[in-house]
Fold this sequence. Notes:
Elements: E1 32-35, E2 38-41, E3 59-63, E4 68-71, H1 77-88, E5 95-99, H2 105-108, E6 120-124, H3 127-141, E7 160-162, E8 165-169, E9 174-179, E10 189-193, E11 198-206, H4 217-227, E12 234-239, H5 246-269, H6 274-280, H7 292-307
Parallel strand pairs: 4-5, 5-6, 6-7, 11-12
Antiparallel strand pairs: 1-2, 2-3, 3-4, 8-9, 9-10, 10-11
Amino acid sequence: MKAINKYFLITLLLALSCKTAASDATDGFNLINVDEGIYAHIGRHLSIEDEQRDDIANIGFIIGDNCVAVIDTGGSIAVGKKLLKAMRSITEKPVCYVINTHIHYDHLLGNKAFVSKNTTFVGHKGLAEAVEHNRGFFLDQFKSELGDNPDPSAIIAPTKLITDKEELDLGDRTLTLISYPTSHSHNDLVILDNKTKTLWSGDLIFRERVPSLTGSLKGWVKVMEELQKLEVNKVIPGHGSIADSMPEAIKQQQAYLKLLLDETRKAVAEGLFVNDAMQTIDKDNRLNWLLHEYQHPTNVSRAFSELEWE
């Protein structure tokens, strides 16, 4: 299952940033009014072993004149229901789209809460196939997140697939969806709200917490260059705090990906074995990432496998 790695099996830690809460009616499910009609729920600082591991990703919604687009749904049906309830404290407009930024459980397993005859599930051109390939994995590893006596139907795949770039209309508000080649994962998609120039990056951008490489390091470096060409005022990353500009959002991650690329290439050229590279490359955590000791060795291993046959 190429879309899955230790991301699901190691401890995760996310950094948060708190802004003005949207409403006390959300029953403690924090919701930030990021900009006009844009609301985000910021995931918690929790490990994958914690019983609340389903609530670790940044998720939310965008309100148009006619309907709402939900951006990622959390790591369980229960979190998806909490997001829906919080959304209903703000708007009664129908959900026309649920957009998943990629395959990872913490962004997708809440989809079931939003199933209705009026809702279309949207994702990268490779996401539907990835969901089909990983149904068994999700049911095995995340059974408790999928409700009572779950079966494969608890895991909702997209039916509208984005092959390159496409616009969705919410009513006097358009969203531009862009799918990217293999980078963080094998099926990454971003959403740009054209009204406010707010970008939902999914896990193409991590802040504070060390990025998790599950796809291609070289691909990710190239995608980061493409993201900088977008006209963006704010960035909602997949994990971590909201940024007020693209340079602010990507500065730390860009430095890390370059370091990982350069030092892994050097290790390969020097004839190091992968285990030695995992123990030596950036062992001092120069960029002060959270969760570095857990995720970074896996990133080195994946980078080494990709670069040793260049």
